[in-house]
From TrEMBL:
InterPro entries: PTrfase/Anion_transptr, PTS_EIIA_type-2_dom, PTS_SugarTrans_NitroReg. Residues 1-150 form the PTS EIIA type-2 domain. CDD domains: PTS_IIA_fru (cd00211). This is PTS system galactitol-specific IIA component. It holds the Pfam family PTS_EIIA_2. SUPFAM superfamilies: Phoshotransferase/anion transport protein. Gene3D superfamilies: Mannitol-specific EII, Chain A (3.40.930.10).
Amino acid sequence: MFSVNRIFTINRPISRTDLLTQMAKSLHEDGFVKESFLQGVLDREAEYPTGIDMETHSIAIPHTEFEHVNKTGFAVAINHAGVEFHRSDEPDSVVKPTVVVLMAIDPSCEKVAVIQSLFALLSDIEQVNKIARNSPQENAKLFTEAISTR
């Protein structure tokens, strides 16, 4: 579900749309999502933003409906460039999430378990700081071990 091919370190300024496009493209190339996935993510992000302020840091967990997904998979971006996401609780405000996790969840996967395990990992500022420093290989291993789909 997590692969070094779908873990990105963003060091140069790009738009949120460009970031999500890059992440969604990697999921599509690996067969996890349908061609419609990116537009589904962009549409959902416009209506229901996914930036989350965690007090000490912020994260974003963009996603879309099952109909755009072939099988469960993830793309992760370490956002050193400060790409902004609108907040889920205050859509007029923005955050610059340290970590962005693009989720492609199929109907056989337990979405609540995924979100709970993501929050358990990403609510810890020390873990987020570690993720921000890790290599893609280290992060693929860390996320694979930490995220539950059941």
